[in-house]
Design brief:
Blueprint: E1 8-14, H1 17-27, E2 32-39, E3 50-52, H2 60-69, E4 74-77, H3 80-84, H4 87-93, E5 98-99, H5 107-110, H6 112-122, E6 129-132, H7 135-141, E7 147-152, E8 161-163, H8 167-179, E9 190-194, E10 199-207, E11 212-214, E12 219-220, E13 223-225, E14 229-232, E15 237-240, H9 243-265, E16 273-281, E17 285-291, H10 298-302, H11 310-317, E18 333-340, E19 349-353, E20 363-367, E21 370-373, E22 376-381, E23 383-391, H12 394-404, H13 421-425
This protein binds adenosine monophosphate (AMP) and glycine (GLY).
């Protein structure tokens, strides 16, 4: 890796739990001098070496000026919106080093049709699909029994996917998208998919444009309530490692990662940053979706298990030197429970006082929707805190997380009581 001889200044963009854990891990690097987090949250505000910054993450000109004034040596982009609007292209055109994909690379996330066509072209197993730009074609397609999943093509804040039970429900989804225009322009095109069944896995992979290095696989819990009931959320908790991944590692390597590597080498894909591969595993692994950023809460659950220097790895992605990076992981288990507002995902919580002990044993608390107002820590969003238990076994990691939760207090605090329980039911390989 060719990091400069002296410690560097980093700018992290975003304000969630993901950005809190990224700042926490990057700050541990001896090569890190200072981190600015825009806008950050109550957790990033109190980390060593880290300072919050009031800059709008879509205000590219102000970000560019800040990077030159400091100067910033590396920008790490958290959320998908600035990526889809081309922040990496804008900053790199000005000579600023950025971890993240160009607008073209981020297309794997901001266009579901592009992602499906890419998978089809390079032979990655994925659900059968049809792309439609009209209500009539969609209506015709969902007459087929297999066509029960509708996905809005563009970014829709995690709300544009409809997994339907029958033709009637699929038709209602089509009406919502095309007739009621519930997603505006993002819904001008849809992907209609075959419904798959199986277990989901989240695999993040670092990419330097030519090589791809998978991180530890994890499993998210998307539904709001216990036993996977209720509305879909951004994630109610996650755990790692996942036995299911170990059982299918070879197939994932051969059928998913190798085709992506080959596409990079053949110039069929332009990508650098982190690729989030959402998998459904049944008889074999199928790719459900790509995101072009770190997952949330997946990142909060895996980074506490990373022994290697994250800064070196992210820097290598900007330098095409990822092949020289060897990532080492601890053998511990990790369980991340999201503490959310009572009315999440429909609503959020603002300005409620949070009580939080200063220190925790065998548990990390990363902030998401929090901020410091008049010197007090208060709620500021739907997902408020991430409590991550780390221990030699999964049952100890679960106990560590859940034993910590009673010491955290805010009005309306809610969480799922069954995060990672399925890991205990899954026999070891
Ligand atoms: P996506 O944003 O494409 O990952 O979709 C969000 C969620 O919808 C996934 O995490 C799955 O739970 C579900 N989903 C997406 N595509 C399918 C599919 N083809 N079959 C069954 N469930 C799906
Ligand atoms: N946890 C799912 C995501 O980050 O999109």
């Amino acid at each position: 890796m060719t990091l400069p001889g002296k410690p560097v200044n980093i700018l992290v963009l975003g304000s969630g739990g993901r950005e809190n854990v990224l700042c926490w891990k990057l700050a541990q690097s001896p090569l890190c001098k200072a981190i600015y987090c825009a806008p950050g949250n109550g957790g990033t505000a109190k980390l060593d070496k880290v300072q919050n910054l009031e800059i709008d993450i879509l205000d590219f000109n102000t970000i560019k000026k800040f990077c030159h004034d400091q100067p910033i040596d590396l920008v790490v982009v958290g959320p998908e919106l600035p990526l889809s609007q081309g922040i990496v292209d804008v900053l790199e055109a000005d000579g600023i080093r950025v971890f993240g994909p160009s607008r073209q690379g981020a297309c794997l996330e901001w266009s579901k049709a592009f992602a499906k066509e890419f998978m089809e072209n390079v032979g990655i197993p994925t659900a059968k699909f049809v792309v439609s730009e009209s209500f009539e074609k969609t209506e015709e397609t969902i007459k087929n029994n297999w066509a029960r999943v509708l996905k809005v093509d563009g970014l829709a804040a995690g709300k544009g996917v409809f997994v339907c039970v029958d033709e009637k429900e699929s038709l209602e989804a089509a009406e919502k998208i095309f007739k009621q225009k519930a997603f505006g322009e993002a819904g001008n095109k849809v992907v209609i998919e075959e419904k798959l069944f199986g277990d989901e896995l989240s695999l993040l992979a670092l990419c330097d444009g030519v090589d791809l290095v998978p991180l530890l696989a994890s499993q998210d819990h998307k539904r709001r309530f216990e036993n996977d009931r209720g509305p879909n959320t951004g994630g109610m908790g996650a755990y790692a490692p996942v036995e299911l991944y170990k059982r299918h590692e070879k197939a994932i390597e051969e059928q998913v990662l190798n085709p992506i590597r080959n596409a990079l080498k053949a110039g069929k894909l332009t990508f650098k940053g982190v690729l989030f591969i959402g998998l459904m595993v049944s008889d074999k692994p199928y790719v459900l979706e790509f995101n072009t950023r770190f997952g949330d809460p997946e990142t909060q659950t895996i980074l506490p298990l990373l022994k290697s220097d994250l800064l070196e790895a992210l820097w290598a992605c900007t330098d095409k030197t990822l092949s020289k990076v060897k990532l080492e992981w601890s053998n511990n288990s990790s369980c991340c429970v999201c503490l959310v507002a009572e009315n999440y995902p429909e609503g959020n919580s603002k300005g409620q006082k949070i009580e939080l002990p200063e220190e925790f044993e065998d548990t990390f608390v990363f902030h998401a929707g929090t901020k410091v107002a008049d010197g007090k820590l208060v709620t500021n969003g739907g997902r408020i805190l991430n409590v991550v238990g780390v221990a030699p076994t999964m049952s100890q990691a679960i106990a560590a997380a859940y034993n910590t939760i009673p010491s955290v207090k805010f009005s309306g605090l809610a969480y799922r009581r069954d995060i990672a329980r399925r890991a205990l039911a899954c026999p070891s390989v």
